[in-house]
């Protein structure tokens, strides 16, 4: 079944109340009209009951033709009754105006049920303290060391994507980069937009804009940063450091394969019979991980 929005439900409820009020008003007027007819019939009967049927029909016809006069003239004989009718009409008009005003308000209001703002404690300011006294906490949150983060900020600080012609400037570049690195360095529930927004103390839309700005900047700097030139001295030094790190972490035979890329795991049909538990991954599947390895001489 199609889902009915809360706005449509409110409008339908107000329209139903409006119809109920009109029905009540109609029944009151019919009641007054019937009472007026009864008074007219009583006066005609007291004036002469021996008249023929044609005269009675003529009298009834004249009474029906002047229904409105008989309704309000009967009330006008009593000041209290006339006041009561006037107040009833005024109350009916006020109720109808109120319902119409509520209908207009429901149609114009963008947020019908405003939720109270959730309390949050931003932690961005802690990064400055961690960068000085607790670099391990800084690295655990942003996945880079403080000097690397500072160098990244210096490289991207003047990029035009972080500036606009509006009177409302963007967030500082270090803040946008920190939000992006925190999100890129985590996965699962810890990387949801809601959690990042609570950590940074800002809206979800602002987090999305920070991700977008940093990604645009990274794509434009990709070719200038992600490269490897064997003839360039700095790249040679970096390559030797990487080889040494691989040799220390693995074995001398793997020293030349310092560029490795982990690929998508391939799920197995069933648990292997030999060392089956070793193939059990974090996604609760038995799988083999593909790895691309390139060896430089």
From TrEMBL:
This is DDE Tnp4 domain-containing protein. Residues 43-66 have a biased composition (Low complexity). Residues 39-66 are annotated as: Disordered. The lineage of its organism: Eukaryota, Fungi, Dikarya, Basidiomycota, Agaricomycotina.
């Amino acid at each position: 079944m199609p889902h009915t929005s809360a706005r449509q439900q409110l409008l339908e409820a107000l329209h139903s109340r409006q119809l109920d009020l009109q029905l009540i008003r109609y029944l009151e007027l019919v009641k007054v009209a019937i009472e007026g007819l009864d008074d007219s019939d009583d006066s005609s009967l007291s004036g002469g009951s021996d008249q023929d049927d044609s005269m009675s029909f003529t009298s009834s016809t004249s009474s029906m033709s002047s229904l409105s006069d008989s309704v309000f003239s009967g009330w006008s004989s009593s000041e209290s009754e006339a006041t009561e009718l006037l107040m009833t009409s005024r109350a009916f008009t006020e109720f109808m105006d109120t319902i119409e005003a509520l209908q207009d308000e429901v149609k114009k209001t963008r947020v019908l049920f405003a939720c109270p703002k959730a309390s949050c404690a931003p932690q961005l300011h802690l990064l400055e303290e961690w960068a000085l006294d607790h670099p391990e906490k800084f690295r655990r949150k942003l996945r880079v060391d403080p000097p690397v983060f500072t160098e990244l900020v210096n490289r991207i600080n003047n990029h035009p994507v972080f500036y606009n012609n509006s009177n409302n400037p963007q967030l500082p570049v270090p803040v946008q980069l920190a939000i992006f690195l925190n999100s890129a360095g985590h996965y699962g529930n810890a990387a949801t937009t809601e959690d990042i927004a609570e950590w940074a103390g800002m809206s979800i839309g602002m987090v999305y804009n920070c991700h977008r700005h940093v990604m645009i900047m990274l794509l434009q700097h990709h070719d200038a940063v992600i490269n490897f030139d064997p003839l360039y001295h700095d790249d040679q030094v970096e390559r030797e450091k990487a080889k040494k790190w691989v040799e220390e972490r693995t074995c001398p035979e793997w020293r030349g394969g310092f560029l490795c890329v982990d690929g998508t795991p391939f799920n197995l049909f069933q648990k292997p019979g030999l060392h089956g538990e070793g193939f059990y991954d974090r996604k609760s599947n038995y799988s083999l991980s593909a790895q691309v390895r390139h060896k430089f001489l």
